Structures
1.
Amino acid sequence: MSEVVAALEGVTKDYGPTRALDGVDLAVHRGEVLGLLGPNGSGKTTAVSLLAGLRRPDGGRVRLAGGDPRDRRTRTRLGVTAQQTGMVDVLKVRELAKWAATHYPAARDVDELLAEFGLDDLADKQFGGLSGGQQRRLTVALAFVGDPEVALLDEPTTGLDVGARRSLWDAIRRYGSGRRAVVLTSHYLEEVEALADRVVVLGRGRVLAEGTVDEIRRLVGLTKVRVRVAEDVEFATLGPVAQVERRDESVEVLTPDADQLVRGLVRHEIGFSHLEVAPASLEDAFLALTDDHHGAEGPAADRAAMESVLEVGAPAATDRPDTTTQSPDAQPRR
């Protein structure tokens, strides 16, 4: 296994009487794209904010590039997607990129970076004159301007059309395939499926599963059966069923035993056609793993912190007292 460039080691994080992270171990390796998944209240946002140096753990240790992410010099080795609303509308794209580059000791060539993200034709255009998708591409590009060892990409392709999303995927792949690492969070699970070398699933402040996408799929032991039936069918009477979803003329069934389900259709002489059997998707596996691990939501303190424009050279945010700080990841302590 390659070198660990960022890690949570036995980390706990409390917000007053609630616990957001409960003894979490998480390692990010050089040269990988790590997909970090979890439902609301899972601890995902708190984990990312700790890696970014925006919070300190109450227990355990957080490491980034061999140092503490709350240290000013260590944070120059980190890139984070910025909030679009924090940008100055009258500044041009190249000006914003050059300004961001001043926060890093070994920044990349700005024009080269803009070309890599398909923004070179927009270099002399004001930020306020860009479309929403173009603005989003720029904020993601700026996460890489300092040539950081670790890039934290929080929902990087939100608001992009299919073509722009796939173009951005290519840029992320190129970055994560070398000596650097990318931590990716996304509600587009097909995006994580396409990009991530490894996936960590959080629920109620704990690691529920980790491994490659294929390993996560196999872990839940489910198969997807898609079929058209000539009548209403109670699939649970045919075999073990985890989920049934009707889609137009077809029915999609998640089952641990596809053979038994199909035999049940034949045995009960139920007319069917267009039968397809396929492995469960990452989304199917994610929903199965997290079905009982959704948490209560609170005021979005950590989300607001992550969405601020992260000035890499500036000191990290100071934690508020636990009696007043809340998080969407916080869970009642048990």
2.
Amino acid sequence: MGSDLINAYRIHRALYDTILVSGIILLGLYLAFDLGWLARLVDQDRSYLSLVMLALYLLTSLNWAYRMTALSSMESSLLRSLPDLSDLLETNALKGFSELKLGNIEGFCDDQLNHHALGHFVSELLLKLGLMGTVIGFILMLMPIAEIQTFDPSTLQQLLSSMSGGMAVALYTTLTGLITSTLVKYQYYLADSAVIRITQTLQGARD
């Protein structure tokens, strides 16, 4: 029983990784909504960059899930075809690998990894958007200082209130950028790992 589970995980590892990570992400989103964190984010981030980053992250995650499903199908086809993999590839009889020749495995690997370039770009973009939100937040925080005419208690109270709003923008956008960038980077690390496993299986068939 245990060996069957291990074998099933090995054959469908990319799919199981996708289900596990997606489940954790959905649980995190539910908790953030239930605890009011998302509502607070929308209310206090006047730059709306956090919402842009969340929307971009969700779209990228959908693309990642689609990609991981395709890789899972490819990997399971390879592993189920062992030990006749070499002959199947030579005769173009393996589904999903009709254009692959055993002598061009490295080119196949590079082509598959190129599909992940968008994900790695989005990961860096989310981090940069978070840093941009930090700058915008500090600008919003410092702007009221230039408008001070008097230093009476009521003016200072309004000043502190305005500055706290700018600080909230800086902190929320930075936090959102760091979290979403890290998640995308990890998700596409899993996709890269799936490609490497597929390549190693192909190289084993060639050798």
3.
Amino acid sequence: SPHVLFFEPLIRMLKKEGAEFLITARPYQQTIELLKHKELDHKIIGKHYGKNKFRK
């Protein structure tokens, strides 16, 4: 999932300005591993529901 790589610079910049964040993520693809690797505090919410759009 490219979201971690896309938002990381923005999150770090805004944190330097004093902003606070609550990063949430579903355990999908490499998202959690990337958050850990980038040392971004996060909370795992929900689960991956597959391709079923109704369950999302």
4.
Amino acid sequence: MLTRLFSNFNENLEEKNFQKYLKSAKKGNAKTRNKLDSDGQCNLSRCYQLDSGTIKDEKKAFQWYMKSAEGGSISGQYNLGDCYRNGIGTIKDEEKAFQWYLKSAEGGDKSIQWYLKSAEGGSIPGQYNLGDCYHNGIGTIKDEEKALHWYSISVEGGNSYAQTSLGKIKKTKDEEKIFHWYLKSAEEGNTDGQNKLGYCYLLGIGTTNDDEKAFQWYVKSAEGGNSDRKKALRWYLKSS
């Protein structure tokens, strides 16, 4: 009984919210519409997208996200980017997704002084997605420095996904440096460097996995008298 009452209450609340958002979204015209109207359009879009208080309609969700984004709503810009990226209510278009993520991440309409403090620097999810676009070359050329920049800003805002992505990039960069110095050491005849370089090739640390090169450097290291590498070489040959 209580479950049914709670369910009915939720449905009524969702319908009321939908009507409120619809009224806000349709308020005014292009010249008089303000940010509240744009945010109302974004909320209305979510209702259509998530089947909240109305029938699910992804095309209408996309249309209202577009109006919201063009009206300066950061959330609208971010969600419109998602629509283009995932083909929600429209054809997939990674370049357009990137452009709207960029607009969202940069903070949208900077002339509006009364943004919430948490949104003054831009949309945190938008910043993360923009970093993702730069990192994976989605809608733009790959650029790790820019990816690091936007991931870092999103991390400062508390985005856990950005923390993971930032960690992966930094680890990769650190591994590449480690590989570089092992290679330099190995080429100069250092048996310990040759040992560790073989290990990098074997496991793909800072470079692509290459068993043949791993074996070659293990042999060089062993021939140079590295006892640790002799053991590792025996293990390598046994497991091959």
